[in-house]
Amino acid sequence: MATWSEVQQFIGSNYKVTNTTDSMMTLEFETQPGRSQMVFVMGIEDAEELSGVRFFSAFAEVDQISPAQFAQLANNSLFGLAEQAGYYGLVHMSLLADLDASEIHIPMLAVTAQADKIERQLGLGDTF
Question: pLDDT per residue over 72-100, tens digit each?
Fold first, then answer.
């Protein structure tokens, strides 16, 4: 795959998308019985051929945990941590130029599962 449109088409054909815009798709997965987790998949266009896709799954509102707790989570994560629109979450980025199906499927599900695990560990219920 080499374009955001192709990524959108692949995701739309293989997963249940709950919301979509030109630059973002929202999906919700059941992570455990009675729990679900949202993931946002965003297309990032860059004029310097570094276009990519960003997978983000929230686990807390910014005011629910301290900056020290957030920093500690980074020590034990294979993914990046980020703040987006007032939420802390796990993030993974991939370049579009050489993206294949496994580079969509695996990071999307892994970010989702790990964010849900952190949300449970923090005792924050099932908000996301």
Answer: 888 878 899 999 999 999 999 998 888 88
Question: What pLDDT, in 10s, does the model give residues 93-117?
Answer: 998 888 888 889 999 999 999 999 9
What sign does the CA torsion over 86, 91, 95, 100 have?
A: negative
Q: What is the CA radius of gyration of the chain?
A: 15
Q: How many CB atoms lie within 10 A of CB 125?
A: 9
Please list, in sequence order, all residues whose beta carbon lies within 8 angstroms of the beta carbon of residue 59, skipping any fewer than 6 positions away.
88, 89, 90, 115, 116, 118, 119, 122, 124, 128
Pairing of strands 80-84, 52-61: unpaired
Q: What is the dihedral of CA 78, 79, 80, 84, to 10 degrees?
A: -150
Fold of 4-121: Yope Regulator; Chain: A, (3.30.1460)
- Predicted model pTM: 0.90
Is residue 90 within 8 Å of 118, Cβ to Cβ? Answer: yes
